[in-house]
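Many introductory courses stop at the sequence. We go one step further.
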Amino acid sequence: MSAATILKSRPAIILALCAVPAFSLAQVAGVLPGSTPTPARAAPQDAGLVVTLGYQTSLRAGDNLGNTGAANKNSYIFDNTLSLGVKSTTRDTSFSLDTSGILRTSNATGTRQGALDNQTIKFSYSHSSANSKLTLDGSYNSASMAFLDPLLLSDLSGSDLIPSNARRNYLAGGVTFETGIDGPLGLQFQARRQAVQYSGTLSPGLYDWAHNQFALDLRAQVGTATQSHLLANEDTYSANDAAQTTHRIDTLRFGVTHDIDAVTQLSVTLGAGRLTTGGLLATPVQNAGVGSLDLNRTLANGGAGLSFDRSLDINGPRSTLRAGRNYDFADGAFNVSLGATQGTRGGGKAIGGLTLKRTTTSGQIDLSLSRDISQSASVNEELVNRATLTYARPLTKTSSLALSLEYALAEDAGYNTVTTHRWSGARATFSQNLTPDWALTTGYQYVHNNSGSTGAANSNSVFITLGRTFTFRP
């Protein structure tokens, strides 16, 4: 299957996102450069050990803060967040560790409870030598879904929009090794694992799952403007759903990246893939051709690109065509992409995205629209639509006002296996820096969700937050 369309992993927990690298040929070519030598490393200006301590207390009051069923007119959430960060940087090595947790008292779920919630640990480590690099990263989070805002997730699927009091434990980790970075021959190996476990729920849409990915890229510099690649990928899922679903996708591709001129690059891959599924919904082994074509050109004010991708996903072959254009301005940026995708069932679907960032004398505007296929751990394919609009305006040198609107819709992509879920919200926030270290935030938030499995719910709340961060070098 194509690198760019490896099955999207399920979203991580809020504040514990661990991005899964996409093994696209263009990205691999960038990671393992051939025509452009890696510059000599210089000692970073922030070298040494840095420790950051953070404390934040927040009180939220309103109706139905748990967003599950009938409104509780007197619900509240009182959080005290503690965080610790450690970062060490040298000429060849970098290490970071971030931990946090929330001491929470709340009656938002119907009964008063106090507990340690949203425990998060994230770390990263990298070491570079003359011609190689090793990178490790990991993430863990344990949180009650009743207190999470799914619209803050960078990646989203329908299960994140199901209101629930379940506890969700998320674990992710990966390793990347590169060698031959500056030579005519290079190798990159990546391995990742993600796993989610739920407790305290009987919802059929919330089930444990695990996802493993392995990718190998062998690169050879053919000429001053051409690289060849041999790419092998293995992708496996196992889900504790009603069907006990498992699947495995193996692909082998050969690719070429060629610089047509100084600003135009063409990447082509061609290969074969094999899909094996298990469980109650097991299907015969499927074999299919896979490949991709990417044409990108750098322009004076941004860039443009055209891509076609034929991949093998959990339901069989999928073909996707996209065209995109990005603009860079002195006061912001504008990116837009349009395309279509066709799977083995469900007909063609329009997909695309738009982002706009602009800063003016009166404030900053951020707009984001997206529509794309998202695949869950089971044999589901969802069409996820998202929209976010934010306007932030400075009031004084130490205060600001922000307004935001958010919307998400996860619906079936044509396979009749996904329940429709909607989630929307609006927020108004006032922020004031009391001192260089202390910050005060207060405001109002409205949330509406409508899940096909639990029905509709609304929430109105006001909040006030006070926090401080301490940074020092031992």
